Amino acid sequence: xxxxxxxxxxxxxxxxxxxxxxxxxxxxxxxxxxxxxxxxxxxxxxxxxxxxxxxxxxxxxxxxxxxxxxxxxxxxxxxxxxxxxxxxxxxxxxxxxxxxxxxxxxxxxxxxxxxxxxxxxxxxxxxxxxxxxxxxxxxxxxxxxxxxxxxxxxxxxxxxxxxxxxxxxxxxxxxxxxxxxxxxxxxxxxxxxxxxxxxxxxxxxxxxxxxxxxxxxxxxxxxxxxxxxxxxxxxxxxxxxxxxxxxxxxxxxxxxxxxxxxxxxxxxxxxxxxxxxxx
Length: 279
Fold this sequence. Notes:
The chain is of the alpha+beta class. β16 and β17 (266-275) form a beta hairpin. The chain has helices spanning 26-33, 49-55, 83-96, 153-158, 166-173, 211-224, and strands spanning 6-10, 16-20, 41-44, 61-68, 73-79, 100-101, 109-111, 121-124, 127-130, 138-144, 176-178, 183-191, 198-206, 228-234, 238-246, 252-263, 266-275.
């Protein structure tokens, strides 16, 4: 991007290695950012007028630059006091100005925290603004000024899931499970395991917790969401706990929690939910 400061320098054997020394030539950066023959305009150290009002650059921020395509403008800001506070204040300002937040679907399975992530995209008429925090100090603010309504993120988020969609039915009944204490190495969810009547959420963690403590942690969260323990078994490498729940809408589910020891202090934790009753 505009802030790239990596230059390629020769090493032994003719190979190249990145060095933090000088800026990459602008024509090379422009070539990297070209999208199917659409060449962007680059504004190093500047913010374009169309973004200036939306971004409201604070005094402690440094404008790294703006990338402008025909259909979008994106400014990169480096903020000393942290990206989180800036994103929150910009979110409040957009909401007060009549922008509609694109609410994210309910997260299920293993999540980093039980608190839903705040929206990062906002829509007003045919315009969409996105403001994700790249890291603790870097923020991007993007504006798509003219988006087809059925392609808008707000339009997609507002759609009611198809009642006949098995995946959506499973996702709506899947419990929300916060990640046990420890560093997450891999996380994911998938449906359709063994047919269209089950959904699986998997994480890989490094933790000082024992397998039994992980089972207790997840079991406590299942209990708080109305799941009833049914059976459990433990071996040298694998701990398994089964639970069931009948939902108010008649959906009956069996849950299987599996904690697999990969090596000392590192585990694969899987929650499999299977629908028991057929429509």
